[in-house]
Amino acid sequence: MGHLGGGLRGELRLAVRRIARTPLFSGVVISVIALGIGINAGLLTTLDVYVRRPAPGIAPGLALVRITATAARGSTAQPVEVALSYPDVRDLGRERRIFAGVAAWGYTPLAADFGGGAEPVEGFFTTGNYFTLLGVAMAAGTGFPPAVDEAAAPVAVISHSVWMRRFDGSPDVIGRTIRVMNVPFTVVGVAQAPFTGVDVVDMDHPAVWLPLSSRALVEPGRRDELARREVASLEAVARLAPGVRPAEVGSLTARLAARLAGEDPVGHRRLALRAGWLRGMSLRDSGTVELVVAIAIVAVLIVIITCTNVSALLLGRAVARRGEIGVRLALGATRLRIIRQLLAEALVFAAAGALLALALYAIAIRLARTTIPDTIYGLEPKPVTFLAAAALALITTIGFGLVPALYGSRAGIGETIKSGGPRAVRRSRLQAAFVVLQLASSQPVLVVTGLVLVDLRSASIKRAAPAPREVLTMRARLLRPGQPEESPPARDSAAAAVRHTLGLIRRRLIEVPGVELAAVNAESGSARFEVPAGRSAPSLQRIRVTAGYFEARGIPLLRGRAIGAEDDHPGSNTVVVSQAVAERLWPGEDPIGRRLLRYPSDGAEGAPVPLLVIGVAGRAPYEEAERAETVFEPLSAAGPQRGAGITVRTSGDARLLVPTIRAAVREVEPYAALDEVLTLAERYEENRQSETQANLAAFAVGAAALLLASLGLYAIIAFSVAQRTHEIGVRLAIGASPAGVVGRFVRDGIKVSALGLAIGLPLSVAGIRVVQANLVGFVPRMAGAAVIVTAALVAVAALASWLPARRAGRVDPVIALRSE
Asked: Is pLDDT larger for residue 764 or for residue 133?
């Protein structure tokens, strides 16, 4: 055993000495490994923290799962995901052989007054065991009292951000009274940071948790919700009983689901329950899925680049050392000993790369935290993911080092005396093949990586003029206590009441001294539109606006007229379309007076609504270059809503009028919670900064990938050219000029590069198609990314051919002839 340990130590010491003799080559190999480990460790940590694990603040190791339910809907009886009712959750909690506990929550936007006026908060109505089931600790207080589900206790738990911003982190907050929807609640707890909910969304926004039993206090229309199985608005999380796996939950709850379907045949038809491990990022959101898939794709591509580089570098070095290996075999070394020595060198390379990667890993985490804080919140370095990335690099380095070791150990004794002539030519061709392989694999990987990163961060704002400071925008939530019942007449009445209140707010704002214009808008998602017997647009953005919206925002009307007060009434069918929509649906034609059909949103059943186009809107000078395809409708077309956007144009700097405008809004509607009160200049500057930070992060990853490939390519070409010093000496001895020799090698390098890039081109196209098929919403943009990658690789190949050939061309021919 001691002999084996001593032999291994000896092999490692010899490997370190051999690596130290070639510092440039060794530095490149170690840098490639370190970059690969560091970048992948950062990406894997991000995926681990937010995709594999529960949200930050939730205790690990509790066997927590998210319960999802599906039921049949529509005439086709297609199963769709549905919410749960409180009786459903209560029945699930009684299944003790399956679940150790079940908690539920419902989200709703609320207005809360912490002492400085109403402001919007993320509101969660939860069961009493919500925090204890998730293992969320309290930074202050004890949380919800026992038996809170049985009595409508007016108590609340606030988020850590609310505690710090509104109460300066004072422990006296416990027992204080806050008003939620103008109803008094007593603070009984502060959730430990960084917990803000089960899902990683809006993590820095203020949040308030209230007992589910107290929902009727702020929404009287839900007074008997806890007793009605047909009222489903809850999500559920459960802790599995020992020995139960998530995949078994569906079959174990089949009998319960059948019973619930019998009790509520309409809402629970063909009910099925499933469970999946609780994760911070819900993969039900398409934007989250795109982000996760993009990160995973980039991580895989970085691994491919790293493995390709390490393999080509070590294989090229083994080819160059066949003469040395032949001598060692002639002196009695066994083939196994040669293989062990080469693998020991690969192990030293991997270990040195891992040590250097530690620093790169910390930098990558810090970069992610500073560039995309809305997504990467509370991210900390994880030893497990770093070790996973390092182990992956170690395995791939040794695995890819095994091929060169096996190849190099095949050298015969005759290799030592046949290093020139045909054998040298074959070696040169083999090394040229390495270059072709490197380029053919690096080009598609880099092109796909660049396009994925460009697509991920393609919404950078480009403005021809600065946004105005005299225009103030804000979001207003009209959150009155006592929400109406969910019946159609009540919804219509609520919608009319909200529109009336918004009209009063708009008129009151116009009366404020210094205000020139005021307008209201409501964004309502997207819908499918179609020209009768003509072109179709599957998804266009819808914005409902009042008179004065276009003028207040500085949006020009290219044709026709804007939506006016005469259009804003129930049953109105007039719309204004953006220039992008006009060009798409009526290319080369005048859309004014044309008919447009709007289909119900979200695939709902119903006949399309005919609309009349009265105007075409252009783009304001400060807006993004690629404006979304938008249809503007009168505000009267909006259904029940709790929020709206308000735009105010003033005669001077709008920031100076913010207190007056806030007071004017609350004169009309005391429960209006104003948020995102920003001038257009501030809003676009904020967007520009976030876009710049995000683009810098994407650029850093792309640049690192390009650096990885360039380092490997340079080392391979430079190493192969340096091995041809003898050939250079022969050419110089027979009369060739140094400049001619150098030029020849550079041309040879470019020719080999061109061949590799030509082979890589169809692979790049195939890679783009694979990503396009797997990454939802991916659209290849910016062909310049492919041009930059190609040009950079050609430049690296030319430089790698020129530098060693130039050095060899300056050496005396006699010395060059003796180089081998």
From this structure: 133
Residue 161: burial class (beta carbons within 10 Å; 0-12, 13-18, 19+): middle
Among 548, 542, 546, which residue's Cα sits nearest to residue 500?
A: 546
Cα–Cα distance list, 571 to 568, 637, 638 (Å): 9, 7, 11
Are 745 and 809 in contact by the 8 Å Cβ rule? The answer is: no
Query: What pLDDT, on the 0 to 100 scale, is given for residue 33?
Result: 79
- Closest by CA to 408, choosing from 339, 307, 330, 332, is 339
Cβ contacts of residue 204 below 8 Å, gap of 6+?
161, 196, 373, 374, 377
- What angle in degrees, to the nearest 10, is found between the helix axes of 658-668 and 488-510? 140
pLDDT of residue 459: 42
Average per-residue pLDDT for the chain: 76
User: Do residues 117 and 666 lie in contact, with contact meaning Cβ atoms separated by under 8 Å?
Assistant: yes
Tokens of 248: 């078994």
| Greater pLDDT, 630 or 439 | 630
Residues 6+ apart with CB under 8 A from 25: 313, 317, 715, 719
Express the helix, strand and coil content of the chain in percent, nearest 5 each: 55, 20, 30
Contact 611, 595 (CB under 8 A): yes
d(CA 116, CA 179): 11
| Whether pLDDT at 465 is above 70 | no
Q: How many residues are recorded in the chain?
A: 820
Poorest-pLDDT segment among 213-227, 388-402, 577-591, 726-740: 388-402
Question: Is the model's pLDDT at 724 over the cut of 80?
Answer: no
Q: Which range (220-224, 429-433, 650-654) has the least confidence? A: 429-433
d(CA 213, CA 146): 13
pLDDT of residue 217: 84
Closest alpha carbon to 87 in 259, 241, 207: 259
CB atoms within 10 A of CB 692: 14
Query: Taking a C-beta distance cutoff of 8 angstroms, is the pair 519, 471 a contact?
Result: no
Gap between the Cα atoms of 200 and 47, Å rounded: 12
Contact 505, 665 (CB under 8 A): yes
* CA–CA dist 531, 597 (Å, integer): 6
- Is pLDDT at 460 greater than 50 in this prediction? no
Quick one: pLDDT at residue 132?
94
Measure Cα distances from 714 to 145, 360, 507, 723, 771 in Å.
Answer: 67, 22, 69, 14, 28
pLDDT in tens, 340-363: 777 788 788 878 887 787 777 777
User: Cis link prior to 488 (omega < 30° from 0)?
Assistant: no
Mean pLDDT of 435-452: 68
Count of CB atoms situated within 10 Å of the CB of 247: 10
CA 213, CA 789: separation in Å to the nearest integer? 60
Residue 208's beta-bridge partner residues?
123, 158
Q: 3-class SS at 475?
A: strand
Say how far apart CA 668 and CA 501 lie, in whole Å. 8
DSSP-H helix ranges across 54-112: 86-93
